[in-house]
Design a protein that fits this description.
heterodimer; A: 204 residues; alpha+beta; 6 helices; 29% helix; B: 202 residues; Rna Polymerase Sigma Factor, Chain: A; Arc Repressor Mutant, subunit A; 2 domains; 65% helix
């Protein structure tokens, strides 16, 4: 599954951030992603050329005139941020994370909704349970920290699961570590349990 | 094309270092002259029109200028770094032209860097080995990689175009990538040995 996701061309900021996080969380993924980027670089280096307009160089010079090389910024220490991939840390560096709390489960949007896509951080406290639900359209969930389990298995850091309409599941955060994950979704979440209607109203 | 397997410093590594260290315009122009026209054909092949392609090149060059010190020669070759920036910038700009909600994702589009390399270590050779491997691949296999990672087509689209079964498309691409990964890592372990206990000398 990882290979499929990493080699699918990205076409939106959400898919780009998700792919970069996936590449980062596991050394295997990272090296596979490096290999893919090297292939892209190889073709760029050997690409045909298309003539540039005459004024482009001056435009570039103008735009860079008063800019100098910017040193890397050291972020403020935040215990949660330090557990996230560099891609997310740098994306969130100057932003407030607006967590919405649903009891022991916290959800924060990472990018504004674009087309039908959502990118969210999900923080499941140790032992907490997300009520039974399915996903309209696909959800790709990447475990960034800790682990969780559901009716289908146990998932540790660096693993990715793709869920669709026919996966009715009840994720539970690991009793010791809880779980932080990145959810990339193309549709609404649909709760199916006792309080399903109410939860659907709150969550979507 | 035969590549010389000798240690010749990639001129663009030096150019990027000159930009980072002393804002050298000559090095910047060298990168623009070589990569500008190539980026344009890449961007136009993957869906940008003339004006948008040049806008993306302009933004890419600005990132190269301001973030040259992020470039780490042990992580990627210069062309790979530039390719990654342009591809990511394209996603950002195409989204804006589609009149979506504007949001600053500037920092997110930068390829992440974890550590600065020891500048005394020669990394060019592992990237040369990758290029040599690709040079030697049969054309039909190279074309699959080109469609996937340069023309940005999905495995399904590639299977449709080439009439090769989807499973075969995937396994061929995967096999080539595993070989390339092996070459990148092989050299990496040697670099680590050489680098054992070494510290950066300024």
């Amino acid at each position: 599954m990882t290979f499929e996701i990493l080699s699918t061309p990205v076409n939106s900021p959400a898919s780009l951030i998700f792919q970069q996080c996936l590449a980062e969380v596991d050394p295997e993924n990272r090296s596979l992603n490096s290999a893919m980027n090297e292939v892209g670089g190889y073709f760029l280096e050997n690409a045909e050329t298309s003539p540039l307009s005459n004024e482009l160089w001056n435009k570039v010079l103008n735009q860079t005139k008063n800019k100098t090389s910017v040193p890397q910024i050291n972020e403020k220490h935040d215990p949660l941020l330090s557990q996230l991939p560099l891609t997310l840390r740098s994306h969130l560096r100057n932003k407030n994370i607006n967590w919405k709390s649903f009891k022991d489960v916290k959800v924060a949007s990472i990018l504004p909704k674009y087309n039908n896509e959502k990118l969210e951080l999900i923080h499941v406290m140790p032992g907490a349970k997300i009520p039974q639900h399915t996903h309209e359209g696909n959800e790709s969930f990447l475990v960034l920290h800790g682990s969780y389990s559901d009716e289908y298995g146990d998932y540790k850091q660096g693993s990715v699961q793709v869920r669709s309409d026919d996966h009715n599941h009840t994720p539970v955060g690991d009793a010791k570590t809880g779980c932080i994950g990145l959810a990339y979704t193309h549709g609404k979440i649909k709760f199916s349990g006792k309080f399903g209607k109410l939860l659907n109203l709150i969550a979507n | 094309m035969e590549r010389l397997m000798v240690k010749v410093k990639n001129p663009f590594v030096e150019a990027l270092q000159n930009i980072a260290e002393r804002q050298d315009i000559g090095s910047f122009k060298k990168i623009f002259d070589y990569f500008g026209p190539r980026l344009k054909s890449f961007l136009m092949k993957s869906g940008a029109d003339d004006a948008v392609a040049e806008e993306i090149i302009q933004e890419t060059m600005t990132i190269i200028w301001t973030k040259a010190d992020y470039y780490d020669p042990s992580v990627a070759s210069p062309s790979t770094w530039i390719y990654t920036i342009a591809r990511n910038k394209k996603i950002d700009i195409l989204r804006k032209t589609r009149k979506a909600v504007l949001e600053d994702i500037e920092t997110a589009i930068l390829p992440p860097v974890e550590s600065k390399a020891d500048e005394n270590i020669e990394h060019d050779q592992k990237f040369e080995m990758v290029a040599q491997y690709l040079d030697d691949l049969p054309k039909d296999q190279l074309d699959l990689l080109k469609m996937n990672f340069f023309e940005e087509k999905s495995h399904g689209e590639i299977a449709d175009i080439t009439k090769i079964p989807l499973g075969t498309v995937k396994s061929r691409i995967r096999l080539a990538l595993e070989k390339i990964r092996g070459k990148l890592e092989q050299d990496g372990s040697m670099v680590n040995l050489n680098n054992d206990g070494g510290s950066k000398v300024n």
